Task: structure prediction
Amino acid sequence: MASEKRNNVTYDDLYKYRSIWMGIAIVWIIYYHFPHDFITNPLLLKLQLYGYAGVDMFLFASGIGCYYSLSRDCSPLGFMKRRLKRILPSYWFFLIMWSALKLIQNQVDLKAILGNFLGVQYFSSAGIAFNWYIGLLLVFYILAPLLFELLKGVVAPVKYVMLTALMILFTVPFIGDQGLLIAFSRLPVFFIGMCFGKAGVIKRNVSKNDAFLITAAGFLGVVVLYIVDRYFYSHIWETGLAWYVFMLIAPFLCLLISCASDLVSKAGPGRIVLSVFEFFGKYSFELFMAHLFVIDIRAFFVEKGILADGLWTWWSVIIFSVPFALVLGIPGRLIGNNKKI
Result:
């Protein structure tokens, strides 16, 4: 009996490594924003080109977190307050500095600044937005209570598949509008995250069947990605093929990281590596904002001739992003936020 108990791994057990997923995801995203010119190894270059998948890992993890949060208190207003309390202090603190830089560069007006503070600027055609990810998070937070209610009574696997297909259908009208498709094509992976969140809340065991299906879906996603990349590359952005495929890959990748983390956590060096990624995961939201801001600062100095456009200035993006992220996290720490988003 004891042996059986040890072999029963639940989804909830795997989610304890969620901060590791997010740490790896943010490192992958930062790597993605490095210029391709400095990377000569074909494998490393290909890994960089798919770095946008870090966003899909974030949203898969966020879907899980949203389901857990709603399972404790399903009040839509209470849920929104909790989620906004986690992101807005750091985000608004960051926006003060970002807005100052953009005003110096004559790139924003007060209306656009207001839109960014409210998180809706990306959906406006007037003025620039900091990034599409913030607005998308707010949309998904609004949708999450509805998706939670939708999932509560679902048991049959075919219904999960049908609902996922419905989520994909909701994104079809955005095909052809790359600016919005880059955001809304991520609805399915967020919804799948909520489905996995339900499995964690009910303490469902990871059966051999589950493990096979998740692995098969991941490998199918990789095969589809290869075919799309090789034969349809000129169409992957306008059709969203570059993003849709990661609804299959992201869950497999995240759970694989959990299994690998569980193995390496048993050794001293492994625990050190995990603690580094856990730190990055804890401050992943701040690192996301920080590295984009430092890239902007770098570009500004290069344009003015203050800095040369060399590899060392790109390494400075990493060097300065980490302490800057810690600074951005100060408002959240002052109000006692849990940093797992």
Observations:
- The two ends are 37 Å apart (CA to CA).
- DSSP finds 19 helices and no strands in the chain.
- The CA atoms of residues 285 and 341 lie 7 Å apart.
- Residues 1-6 have pLDDT under 50 and may be disordered.
